[in-house]
Write a structure and sequence with these properties.
10 helices; 37% helix; Rossmann fold; alpha/beta; globular
Length: 259
């Protein structure tokens, strides 16, 4: 399959920064971070395939998703950028840096490691598939359908951003395609080679996605890596403590701008 042109939210001017969301997310999840960076940077938040307003596709290999990003940046006239990805988007960002390092000036990976994770989100996908999407569906009813297996109200609200409520409700995301791709999304087959440019891994202080035992594989792929931990934040580190996230991020990006 040829690479997809992704939907982009493009604001600001200056050295370009690309933002890649996680599973079930979209470009709009980066609003606070994008607005904070826009005075100094051209900030491009992308909807990955099967998410947001981007096209749907049957497969979600990380090499394919990285190729989508490369294709979209070329279409936007961006030859090289700082690339920041969270969770699944972090794996896409890492794959882009490893397979097309000429496109990545520097890399930021938010709360994910280049390793395979367990199938703990498959139940969430199945619950979303069980929501009775039909004319007349209300947000309250959809929330109740999710609540049986997803007790966190914030998580349900995040997921329901992907459901369009109108005369004919429909999931905006490619839910069936995502469900089929979960084994691929959970994994990460690193390609041969390394990325020698500057790399920052940002972990949430309350998250266990980046663990001490991941340090060796991270260092092997990204020898110039640095690490920051944002306090008072879990896996959604940029949403849970945006100020702390920006404190870690902005000095790293300022180096790219020559500051």
């Amino acid at each position: 399959m040829s690479a997809l042109r992704l939907n982009a939210v493009d604001v600001g001017s200056g050295p370009p920064v690309v933002l890649l969301h996680g599973l079930f997310g979209s470009a709009q999840n980066w609003g606070t971070i994008q607005n904070a960076l826009a005075p100094e940077h051209r900030v491009i938040a992308l909807d990955l395939r099967n998410h947001g307003a981007s096209p749907h596709a049957a497969t979600m290999e990380y090499a394919e998703m990285a190729a989508d990003v490369a294709h979209t940046l070329a279409a936007l006239g961006v030859p090289r950028a700082a690339v920041l990805g969270h969770s699944m988007g972090g794996k896409v960002a890492m794959m882009l840096a490893l397979t097309a390092p000429e496109l990545v000036e520097r890399l930021v990976v938010a709360d994910i490691a280049p390793v395979a994770y367990g199938p703990h989100l498959r139940g969430v996908v199945a619950t979303m598939q069980d929501v009775p999407v039909a004319p007349g569906l209300t947000r309250r009813a959809a929330d109740a359908a999710l609540a049986a297996t997803i007790p966190e109200a914030g998580m349900r609200a995040f997921l329901l951003q992907n459901l369009r409520f109108d005369a004919n409700p429909v999931w905006r995301i490619g839910l069936e395609e995502i469900a089929a791709a979960m084994p691929v999304i959970e994994g990460f087959p690193p390609p041969a080679g390394t990325f020698g440019g500057p790399v920052l891994f940002i972990a949430g202080g309350r998250s266990d996605y980046i663990r001490p035992e991941h340090g060796d594989v991270i260092k092997a792929l990204f020898p110039a890596v640095r690490h920051e931990v944002v306090p008072n934040a879990g896996h959604w580190v940029h949403a849970e403590n945006p100020g702390g996230f920006l404190d870690a991020l902005q000095p790293f990006l300022a180096e790219e701008a020559g500051a």
